[in-house]
Specification:
The chain folds into 3 domains: 271 residues, Bira Bifunctional Protein, Domain 2 (BirA Bifunctional Protein, domain 2, 2-Layer Sandwich); 105 residues, Anticodon-binding domain (Rossmann fold, 3-Layer(aba) Sandwich); 80 residues, C-terminal domain of ProRS (Translation Initiation Factor IF3, 2-Layer Sandwich). 34% of the residues lie in helices and 27% in strands. The strands form 7 sheets. Strands 3-7-8-14-11-10-9 form a 7-stranded mixed sheet, sandwiched between helices. A 5-stranded mixed sheet has the order 16-15-17-18-19, sandwiched between helices. A hairpin with a 5-residue loop joins strand 10 and strand 11. Helix 2 packs across helix 6. The radius of gyration is 26 Å and the shape is globular.
Length: 509
């Protein structure tokens, strides 16, 4: 492989983290900005990553009893108006359809015509339309529970966008369930959060902190919102999944009424929950380095890229045949987490060094070079993406093939361990207000350096103190851990009032 000086990505994380992120997404061929304002084009390598995320998460949701369905993209405006807090929470982000056709104007341009009797909202989320349908489906307690999930897209009109993290249109799954009792709905809310935690930690190799949102940060219309929070390499938090206990709010607004076992009319108890393509952004910001993306092997579009090296047509045929034989042997192997190993044989006629660096930037877990000398010695040259791109080792062909499942498992575990060590290394208990302020204040406001992390500090529970931290330092309480009281009582970091325990404060995406 050609020797490369410096790093493949410029600027580096330390030099300009925001721009580094954009360059990694570009170099890894995950996505690009589209001609449509605020939207993105997810490229084949990025979409294959999303398909694996879908496949893994979908299997966990189905194992928990959920079925997939699909509901309309358009929602009548009157549906959103039924739940006041909900519509208020999303009103500024709604895209609205007001006409149903285009006609030629006097200057040859197209002019909207055929005004709709009622405007349609391009769904920002589906609680209201699904609530209206559930009201038709549910008549008796025997019709409950309903456990449905939807894979689709939503639109939330963003002013400032960033690929995968915040775009006007994004892909996601949203689950919506209806239950006979409050206890069943609460159990569902907690169960789905555990599914998210399991998937993000064990498949994406991203450690998280789980807990409940503060009242000020709950999903609009929810009684409680549970979440998982991850730390990115710039020490900011990323919300990686949410699960909402809706109580009977949406059931009342939508008229989801059932006849109880005692013959009374009752409103159902509902939940909703979701995770999105933001998970791809989270994987980039958790695992990528200054040479590009680092794919967690369990969800990588392919685990192995075989790079044949040849100089002439005759050599090409021989090396390609040998490479395909190695690939076929690898494809017969099972991974440690189930399923077969995915292999790409890159037969393009291009410089071997350039080809290798393309795969490094894409984050392929294992790169395997095979040339005439490797064929003669019946060996391969291997590069691991969790190590320096300049570090390679040679291994006999059969020994290499036999080692791959274990190496991939080791890499998956290693990525999680490395990310967990980063998280733990950037958490600090802070009780002094000045230290708290310094922790979240950059030394150079013009070009802020990577600073801060999660400050585990006391909070009195007051909305005013929460808002002051957000206003003064752009810092929010990420969640209220269920074992918060174990940290012991203390004094609120903002007002000095009594606090039952510590909570994580952080800057966030």
């Amino acid at each position: 492989m050609a020797k490369i000086k410096g790093n493949a990505i410029s600027p580096t994380r330390r030099e300009d983290y925001a721009e580094w992120y954009q360059q990694v997404v570009k170099a890894a061929e995950l996505a690009e900005i589209s001609p449509v304002r605020g939207c993105m084009i997810i490229k084949p390598w990025g979409y294959a990553f999303w398909e694996n995320i879908q496949k893994g998460l979908d299997a966990l949701l189905k194992a928990a009893g959920h079925a997939n369905a699909y509901f309309p993209l358009f929602i009548p405006k009157s549906y959103l108006e039924k739940e006041a807090e909900h519509v208020q929470g999303f009103a500024k982000e709604c895209a609205v359809v007001t006409h149903h056709r285009l006609e030629a104007g006097p200057d040859g341009s197209l002019v909207p015509a055929g005004e709709l009797e009622e405007p349609l909202i391009v769904r920002p989320t589906s609680e209201t339309i699904i609530g209206a349908v559930y009201a038709k489906w549910v008549q008796s307690y025997r019709d409950l529970p309903i456990l449905l999930n939807q894979w689709g897209n939503v639109v939330r009109w963003e002013l400032r966008t960033r690929l995968f993290l915040r775009t006007s249109e994004f892909l996601w799954q949203e689950g919506h369930t209806a239950h006979e009792t409050s206890e069943e709905a609460w159990e569902e809310t907690r169960r789905v959060l555990e599914i998210y935690r399991d998937f993000v930690e064990n498949s994406l190799a991203i450690p998280v902190i789980a807990g409940a949102k503060t009242p000020g940060q709950r999903f609009p219309g929810a009684v409680e919102t549970l979440c998982i929070e991850a730390m990115m390499q710039d020490c900011k938090a990323l919300q990686a999944g949410t699960s909402h206990f809706m109580g009977q709010n949406f059931a009342r607004a939508s008229g989801i009424i059932y006849q109880s076992r005692e013959g009374r009319e009752e409103h159902a108890w509902t939940t909703s929950w979701g995770a999105s393509t933001r998970l791809i952004g989270g994987a980039v910001m958790t695992h990528a380095d200054d040479d590009g993306m680092v794919m967690p092997p369990r969800l990588a579009p392919a685990q192995v890229a075989i790079l044949p090296i040849f100089r002439d047509p005759a050599g090409r045929r021989a090396v390609l045949g040998h490479a395909e034989g190695v690939a076929a042997a690898l494809r017969r192997l099972d991974t440690a987490w189930g399923g077969k190993i995915e292999v790409v044989v890159d037969s393009r006629e291009m410089n071997a060094g350039e080809k290798g660096w393309e795969w490094i930037k894409k984050g392929i877990p294992l790169r395997v070079e095979i040339g005439p000398r490797d064929m003669e010695s019946d060996s391969v040259s291997v590069g691991r993406r969790d190590r320096s791109p300049r570090e390679k080792y040679s291994l006999g062909r059969e020994d290499f093939i036999a080692s791959v499942p274990g190496v991939l498992r080791e890499m998956q575990d290693g990525l999680f361990a490395r990310a967990r060590a980063f998280l733990e290394g950037h958490c600090r208990e802070i009780d002094d207000p000045e230290e708290f302020r310094g922790y979240f204040t950059p030394k150079d406001p013009e070009k802020p350096e990577i600073h801060g992390g999660f400050a585990w500090s006391h909070w009195c529970g007051g909305r005013e103190c929460e808002d002051r931290a957000a206003g003064d330092l752009s810092v929010t309480i990420r969640c209220l851990p269920p074992d918060r009281e174990k940290s012991g009582p203390g004094k609120c970091i903002v007002c000095g009032g009594e606090s039952p325990g510590r909570v994580p404060f952080a800057k966030s995406y």
